[in-house]
Fold this sequence. Notes:
The structure is a single chain. By secondary structure, the chain is of the alpha/beta class. It folds into 2 domains: about 10-65 and about 265-425, EreA/ChaN-like  fold; about 135-250. It contains 16 helices and 11 strands. Helix 2 runs parallel beside helix 5 (about 105-120), helix 7 (about 150-165) packs antiparallel against helix 9 and helix 10 (about 210-235) packs antiparallel against helix 11. It is globular and about 65 Å long.
Amino acid sequence: MKTTIPAHPLNSSTDLDPLLQSIGDARVVLLGEASHGTHEYYTWRTAITKRLVEEKGFQFVAVEGDWPDCFEVNLAVKQLPNGQPASQLLQTFNRWPTWMWGNWEIAALVDWLRQHNAALADKQKVGFYGLDVYSLWESLEQIMQYAGTKGEAAAQAAQRAYHCFEPYSADPQEYAEAVAFVSKDCEDEVLHMLRELKRRTPTAGPDGLSMELDFATEQNALVAVNAERYYKAMLRGGGSSWNVRDRHMMETLQRLLEFHGPDSKAIVWEHNTHIGDARYTDMAADGMVNVGQLARQQLGRNQVYAVGFGSYQGSVIAGKAWGAPLEKMPVPEARRNSWEALLHTELGRNALLFSSEIRHLPALQEHIGHRAIGVVYRPERERYGNYVPTVVPERYDAFLHFETTQALHPLPTTTDQHVPPDLYPWGE
């Protein structure tokens, strides 16, 4: 496979000028990553995020993280003064894989958000939210704290939902296994809770904080509804649980856009497998959808800009098995005939590429293996997996390629005993 690939230099933040120009007036910018443990993916997404906020007025960052933990960060970056160091605040992400959001790279972003927000009015402060669906029990606990302020009917509905899950020891997988072969589950309880919370009367309060808390309570109820569906779907196998998860993340993104107003703009941080349009990978053959596809379909392709990330070699933070201790692992040279190997051969340097400039190349209209490293990774097995067949110029609008990357820097967080079930394809 020999071709000439047009590319732009990528050495400093100023090299992002063409990317900002290409993003134009897009309402949602999706920033990917080829792993959950690479320093450069986090720092370059931070550099892009800062410029989108400062130059284009983006109002919030939404990440592949749990709603309750991320909302705690959201409140911290908006409420000043707050004396808790970012490194301490981020230890709220104590469920495996802790390093995804509990790392020094995110701590630097949190510090910047605090500084940026310090001089702004409440409605102008940039938020930080979680899109994911895993936090069933944590979301129920959050609801119990606030449901009493929403009236007796809402409080009673929340209590019934909470008590329904109590026999399962705060373990969603135990719940899913217990109800798999019986007719009684907690679906009706969580749906009733969500309906009652939606009927609530908004709480009066200063500075918009009460509006955020109202929104968060309703969002936790939505998490409970979709998490209950998700953990049951996981036992059926196939792509159903993946689709429940990504549809939930897209629904949450839509809710956040609505909450922030008709002119709001969002920055999304997720793995490439979520932000790169699934229709241009082998995921489509398995009936799987993702945020990148759903965002283009629901918001319009001209309103969504997807940026993929990847590297040729380096190191990464991951675990050798689900729930295993984190390790710094080598990332070997990319597999022959892969997208990453092609860029190494043709460019041999860090580069920024635009789909509009490479779409005409016949070789890139074929499905090419594109590396995807997950929270579970075994370098010695990479040549037999970890590559997603991809039509790159259609999956993304732009791509950041790095020749050599290094592992990110985790915080010393103590891991909670409850580990979510292993449901990621490719160990994502």
